[in-house]
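Input chain follows. Return structure tokens only.
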Amino acid sequence: MAVSSPSSSSTLKIGIIGFGPFGQFLAKTMIKQGHILRATSRTDHSQLCHRSGISFFSDKRAFLEADNDVILISTSILSLSEVLNSLPVHCLQRRTLIADVLSVKEYPRNVLLQVLPEEMDVLCTHPMFGPESGQNGWKDFAFVYEKVRIRDEATCSSFLRIFESEGCKMLEMSCEEHDKVAAKSQFLTHTIGRVLSELEIQSTSMNTKGFETLIRLKESSVNDSFDLFSGLYIHNRFAKQELLDLEAAFEKVKHKLQQKMEEVQLEQSPNESKL
């Protein structure tokens, strides 16, 4: 298969699979930078794409046969395998950079390597921001990536430059290391937020700054779908241990409180008997 590089170092033809809120969010900046975009999705976004200057394909075969430099996977974590296995990947006309933007990394890497033809380049990425946090720009937000299988360095560099030029903090790390760190940060944050949601905490007339932080955490967590949260658990092998550690930590704190209460009650008992 012949190697074909993008038409210029700054302009890419990018096809997005999964044109939900996150795909649309990324597309706005890519369009602003002058890239040519195509999109395909289970939902018909043809009118939205038309207004944005994006070509929408309802036919997956036609989408794959289009002359894309990059195909960006922006599906949900839970639907990734089903979506990729339903694609007629044999229709890819030339070597293409296949990149994903999922919030877990080992899982999509393994699926991509299993499904894609060996000649396709693979880049696994995680933009550590979204439509809410990144609505005023991407500057100083982390962008994590691993060059899993890259032969066409020019196309890969041009794609990474999309995020670098917006001021992202570019972090190259393995998919395994990403998932280890994300389990201790992103998954733990989502878990605490979901627990607060189950408690149905609400703003009060005497909020402390700390309590206001908890309310914001709850609200930001439930703004993301439960599918995303469950995907962070199901498809990050390190998340299971974090949940067990969180349960153990809760029990340890509970035990310390009970122990202190018993100590105070023992101290008070002699004094009460003298009254």
